[in-house]
Amino acid sequence: MGKVVLDQMAMQRALTRITYEIIEKNKGVDDLVLIGIKTRGVYLAQRIASRLQQLENVSVPVGELDITNYRDDVEHDKPTETEVTITNSNPNISVKDKRVVIVDDVLYTGRTVRAALSAIMDLGRPKMINLAVLVDRGHRELPIRADFVGKNIPSSQKEKISVLVSEIDGKDAVEINK
Is the pTM of this model over 0.70? Predict the structure, then answer.
């Protein structure tokens, strides 16, 4: 158990703020698709979609993206097009000509986002891709930045930022561990 930097209410406010910023930047939710990076990014994307439904009365598709085969820190063969999938309850989800928002819990080196971009581009050519993260902790190794950030938490590389979601962890919080 580390030091809590965002409790449940602060996390909820951050996700609500991100939701409003997504609506504003995209001038609504037309052609919008949310893609959550497994695992916790999926739950955050679902929460943003739920808030979009409340605010705009439109159901925005949410996909789950497993970027394991695109990681540059794991030795593997490049996946074929048939191996790249966005899983969700609607198998007809498409990124072609859509406004895609990638959702993740923590932005750190940028390598996970780079892998997600490669996977999405293998699925089709979106109109635009934005990045929403609950926490930006700095220490980028690649020129990647988030368009929507819940909270900037400067941290040392020795520290670990943990995003807890009730669906997995039984509570909502962001903790920093030494």
Answer: yes
